[in-house]
Recover the amino acids of this structure.
């Protein structure tokens, strides 16, 4: 309806913001059978690449939505990070298959998601500007204004994915504390003539000033560098900075994008307020160095979607939603600390930069640079602790080492690579209780009993691997519990007791 006071048919979830995170949230929920409406204030899809790098956890969301192969076809696999120092010295960190990353402009990522949204029967409702949000313990009402008038949209739940200046966050009265970083960055994208290694992101860390340089597909290059606030935004400026700070021998032929931007370090005081949730830039923001922002937002969506769909379907108790704020706050805080360190290292003055470069040469020589930095950027260091969906780790490390076995992945970490993906047709809302060791051993028997106690929410799988161990895996790919004893497996079952609904 278009009347100012008119309302429409109630949906399960209304999503405010049709950018990448809003599109991903709509796709995930529709794929799980949840009805959604996706509202976007702008009349057209955003242009320009903005974020260009997808790390494993971001790619996992695209894989979950059946978009991974097409994303790889449209993107460029990232093979290495190359650090260029004064004197022509280069440090190289190979990415490796375990840290898989993809150079894909955010505009392409959003386009993929919108295509998938259409396949799932959804659409982006453009030119629908949200002017107010009212929520209580029964539902949410969103007031919108469009070219044809106003509308009241009613829903059971709301996801705010409307970016840094979030109207949802403001109307809910959620504060967004933090700081504005002092550095202004120039971002340019276009065609650059000359030889430049593809499949790599180049960090020029020279005394003339830092620069990030990334060749993309189809002859397009993206570069970013700190500049003064009054820097002229013309092609000649880009050429000058490229000559001073870049590899040399490159000529700017044509620019599609040329702009400056600042950055902030902020996390909302509440990522969940009753029936309303914040994801992506509406929830947190940080320095763009390291390409973490889009991946963090996509993981917000992935963390929330299965929990919300499970509550809506009656699979899980609403208490499971309490974990969203604590878990994603932990992730955001970890990323904010890391990107802050990267930014400070990237923008050092000449004297401090020489000390940094000497230290990095040592780290590269000893192999620490690749072992520590690349997994950190890839997101493998992000871990959830507590919050109701991860248990305390078993104290079994010494006994395992005595038997020559490894400690199972700790609760809150990612599913290890040796666990195969869930089979076709598997329930996307089910936990997986995975065991190794003797198939008829006490540990496997205990794990089967846990699965039997929660027939709708847990399925047992046994893998032929040496050493008896168990992993309780969440639907989003994180470890809820792990250990090596039957008692530990039974305790893992109690983790779910207050979070699931039982058959009548």
């Amino acid at each position: 309806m278009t009347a100012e006071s008119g309302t429409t048919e109630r949906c399960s979830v209304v999503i405010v913001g049709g950018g990448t995170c809003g599109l991903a949230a709509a796709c995930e929920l529709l794929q799980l059978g949840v009805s959604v409406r996706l509202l976007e204030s702008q009349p057209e899809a955003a242009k320009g690449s903005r974020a260009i790098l997808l790390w494993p956890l971001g790619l996992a969301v695209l894989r979950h939505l059946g978009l991974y192969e097409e994303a790889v076809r449209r993107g460029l696999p990232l093979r290495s990070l190359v650090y260029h120092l004064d004197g022509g010295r280069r440090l190289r960190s190979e990415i490796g298959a375990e840290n898989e990353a993809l150079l894909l402009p955010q505009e392409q990522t959003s386009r993929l998601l919108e295509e998938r949204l259409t396949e799932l029967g959804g659409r982006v409702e453009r030119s629908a500007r949200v002017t107010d949000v009212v929520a209580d313990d029964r539902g949410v009402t969103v007031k919108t204004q469009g070219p044809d008038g106003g509308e009241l949209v009613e829903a059971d739940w709301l996801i705010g994915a409307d970016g840094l200046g979030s109207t949802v966050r403001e109307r809910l009265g959620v504060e967004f504390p933090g700081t504005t970083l002092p550095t202004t960055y120039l971002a340019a994208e276009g065609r650059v003539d000359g030889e430049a290694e593809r499949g790599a992101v180049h960090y020029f860390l020279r005394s003339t000033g830092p620069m990030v340089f990334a060749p993309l597909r189809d002859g397009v290059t993206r570069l970013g560098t700190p500049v003064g606030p009054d820097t002229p935004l013309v092609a000649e400026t880009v050429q000058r900075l490229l000559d001073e700070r870049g590899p040399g021998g490159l000529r700017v032929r044509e620019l599609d994008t040329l702009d400056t931007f600042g950055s902030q370090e902020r996390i909302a005081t509440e990522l969940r307020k009753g029936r309303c949730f914040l994801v992506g830039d509406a929830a947190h923001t940080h320095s763009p160095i390291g390409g973490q922002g889009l991946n963090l937002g996509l993981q917000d969506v992935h963390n929330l979607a299965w929990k919300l769909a499970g509550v809506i379907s009656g699979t899980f108790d609403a208490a499971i939603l309490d974990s969203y704020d604590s878990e994603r706050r932990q992730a955001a805080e970890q990323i904010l600390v890391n990107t802050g360190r990267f930014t400070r290292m990237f923008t050092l003055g000449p004297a401090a930069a020489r000390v940094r470069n000497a230290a990095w040469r040592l780290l590269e020589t000893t192999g620490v640079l690749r072992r520590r930095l690349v997994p950190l950027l890839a997101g493998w260091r992000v871990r959830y602790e507590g919050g109701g969906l991860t248990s305390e780790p078993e104290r079994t490390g010494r006994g395992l080492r005595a038997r020559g076995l490894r400690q199972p992945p700790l609760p809150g970490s990612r599913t290890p690579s040796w666990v195969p993906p869930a089979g076709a047709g598997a329930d996307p809302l089910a936990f997986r209780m995975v065991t190794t060791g003797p198939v008829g051993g006490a540990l496997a028997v205990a794990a089967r009993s846990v699965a039997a106690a929660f027939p709708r929410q847990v399925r047992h799988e046994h893998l032929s691997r040496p050493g008896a161990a168990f992993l309780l895996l969440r639907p989003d790919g994180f470890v809820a519990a792990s250990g090596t004893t039957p008692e530990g497996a039974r305790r893992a079952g109690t983790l779910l007791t207050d979070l699931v609904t039982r058959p009548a």
User: Anything to note?
Assistant: DSSP finds 13 helices and 25 strands in the chain. Residues 398-404 have pLDDT under 50 and may be disordered. Residues 76 and 223 are 16 Å apart (CA to CA). The two ends are 39 Å apart (CA to CA).
